[in-house]
Amino acid sequence: MAVDNEPRETFEDVDWDDIDETTRSFSRKTIVTIGVYVLFAVGLLYDYVLKPSRADTIEPLGISLQALDWLYILTLLTILVGVVVPLYENGRMTRYYWQQFRKNRAAVASLLYLGVIFLIGSIGPRFLEQPTVDSSNAYQPPVFTSAPNWLPVECAGEVAGGSCHGTWAHPFGTTHEGKDILVSVIYGMEVSMQVGLIAALITITIAAIVGVSAAYFGGWIDAALMRYVDIQITFPTFFLYLMIVYLYGGSLFSMIVIFGLLGWGGIARIVRSEALQRREEEYVLAAKNAGASGYWTMRRHLLPNVSNSVITAVTLLIPGLILFEASLAFLGLGDPTVPSWGEVIASGRNDLPNAWWVSTIPGIFLFFTILAFNFVGDALRDALDPRAEGGDQ
Amino acid sequence: MATYILRRVAWAVVASLIVLTLTFLLLYFTPDTQLAQLQFQAAQAGDDPEAIGAAYESYHGYDQPIHVQYIEYMGNMLSLDWGWSETRSQPVTTAIAEAIPYSMMYAVPSILISSVLGVAIGLYSATNQYTRGDYAATFFAFFGLSIPDFWFGIVLFVLFSGILGWVPIIFDTTAATFSLENLAQFILPIVVLTLSSIASLMRYSRAEALEYVEAEFVKTAKAKGVGDWRVLTRHIFRPASVPIATILVGDLLGIILVSSYLIEVVFGIPGLGTLSFEAIRDQDTSLVMGTVLLPAFLTIVGNLAQDIAYTILDPRIDYGDS
């Protein structure tokens, strides 16, 4: 019979102070995370306070960052820290989710498509000049197609049989102003991604804070927050945007911020009802019993457990936002300095019988981007949310 | 139940007042472009821009303290005096009243078609889950959900009126309401609007009906030999109809209000959407406010109707005051 030579450690022997020390000291991940955000804050501070106001942000490279770019960088950083890193750390869960997600082939293809759009939209605008007005270059047909010869001012490709053939110089053709459609579409990719992702980040942040605190604190805080949500939801978002864009003008930055600040009501409701259920679970009560503070309970127990439904809801919100931006741009209420898909569609509206490609091509990209987000959101709901099974496939 | 409905109506009134108040505040704190324009013109003509500004403000009552302006504004809005449209030289309410029939001419048929077809397809999908028909319906729903309606409208418009010449290019306001001519020019808007509104209805009815397809009482009915049609209409559709009816009012209204705005601009229908769009383009602030507030009020009323419909249609819900 084996006898333990070492004295058994009893509960009383555990050095709780030591354990407290180790858990309280920052892990490497926390330090890196905080470091990344501090770096971001320093960059922002430098851009807005220290450097001369007219100069480029990074002088030697000629890179100038606007408010929108900073917000986009912050969004991408947060996605990295909040989504990519946890997925990488919890390999087992990631593999499980991926297995669930993979069942939906359309969603996998959509994810791939969105990834490509994101990559091209992020890289392309760094290297391509914004499309410029060049009237001699107007109405070039896309490559492999042709248009009647009278339509383009100067046909860039070969002319055969009275029709002008498209060239690789303008693979998607040009608009009535001679703007290259491929370049506009690539710029539009970035715009759509910015609209979708930034507004989604703002929405998630506010909705999570409001929803979780309403559920956790209850009482008058809950009543006040939810009454406010009631009012905000009352006003149809599209018309609210329309009114505010009309009154205050629409730069892309302000449009995205408005989308984010005013569109979170529905998701806050979802978060609240989810968090209300979680609040009564044993592990939350146990945490409270063990002396967890309100912030700790919300941050560690409520938020992670509502995050699945939030992510799903937001993925289904993004296509709506992209469509709103395109619609507003189509109505001419968008940012005139940014080539967005809606604006290109509007610019080709009157030319459709002759120059079908101007409106059609960006429209196809818009359609597939929205479709892809819808597919991904639907598959995420199936993969992430075990409670929502059966009803909606 | 009566107390609940009363409370709900009271809330709708409060919500409307809050929306109006917020609109007032937005307007109050916005720099007036018209005033800036006037002052610019005055300065160019050699007049004193300050004096013009003061005259303009006193004419519109903008020199009054905020609470006086607020009471005046709310009084006007409640008594349906929504201001004067400068570009159309008529009261805002008249302009809206003239535009509404054109919006109704395609919105009403579209609502009818999409609610009947949407619920029917949804029920079919639910009872034939994972069949080819169900997949086709799902695909169709995603298509309708994702296609930008203004873009789809343009493409259809060019195809059918520009290339094929089947529908007129220019909208004819003189056509009689119930005539073939009118049908021809409204058929495309109806198709586009139906497509965008039917999708969510289909998905929703499918999900709701699925809850009852496997229910005990449906199995019992089948076991007793009740026919498929009767099971579908009496045992599945009836309990599912309550939540479906509510989405009909609330959510459908929201989709239709937004879609119709863009559809009207695309097809040149002189309805509410075009009216609002032109007002925005011409900086006609009172008309913009009127045409944007109307959908907001319709939404409030729609949500109210949705909640009341729920209480009346579903006797199981207990409001704790009976």
UniProtKB/TrEMBL annotation, chain A:
Organism: Natrialba asiatica (strain ATCC 700177 / DSM 12278 / JCM 9576 / FERM P-10747 / NBRC 102637 / 172P1)
GO biological process, one term: transmembrane transport
Annotated membrane topology: Multi-pass membrane protein
Keyword Lipid metabolism part of the UniProt annotation: no
Descriptive protein name: Binding-protein-dependent transport system inner membrane protein
UniProt keyword list: Cell membrane, Membrane, Transmembrane, Transmembrane helix, Transport
Taxonomy, superkingdom: Archaea
Pfam families recorded: BPD_transp_1 (PF00528), OppC_N (PF12911)
Keyword presence, Transmembrane helix: yes
GO terms for cellular component: plasma membrane
Domain ABC transmembrane type-1: 189-377
Phylogenetic classification of the source organism: Archaea, Methanobacteriati, Methanobacteriota, Stenosarchaea group, Halobacteria
Compartments where found: Cell membrane
InterPro entries reported for this sequence: BP-dependent_transpt_permease (IPR050366), MetI-like (IPR000515), MetI-like_sf (IPR035906), OppC_N (IPR025966)
Transmembrane feature ranges: 31-50, 70-88, 108-128, 195-217, 309-334, 354-377
PANTHER family: D,D-DIPEPTIDE TRANSPORT SYSTEM PERMEASE PROTEIN DDPC-RELATED, OLIGOPEPTIDE TRANSPORT SYSTEM PERMEASE PROTEIN APPC
Family recorded in the similarity comment: Belongs to the binding-protein-dependent transport system permease family.
TrEMBL record, chain B:
Location(s) in or outside the cell: Cell membrane
Stretches that traverse the bilayer: 9-29, 106-126, 138-171, 183-202, 244-267, 287-305
GO CC entries: plasma membrane
Main location: membrane
Limits of the ABC transmembrane type-1 domain: 100-310
Membrane-topology annotation of the record: Multi-pass membrane protein
GO terms, biological process: transmembrane transport
CDD domains: TM_PBP2
SUPFAM superfamilies, sorted: MetI-like
One Pfam family it belongs to: BPD_transp_1_N
Keywords, ordered alphabetically: Cell membrane, Membrane, Transmembrane, Transmembrane helix, Transport
Protein family according to the UniProt entry: Belongs to the binding-protein-dependent transport system permease family.
Protein name in UniProt: ABC transporter permease
Native source organism of the sequence: Natrialba asiatica (strain ATCC 700177 / DSM 12278 / JCM 9576 / FERM P-10747 / NBRC 102637 / 172P1)
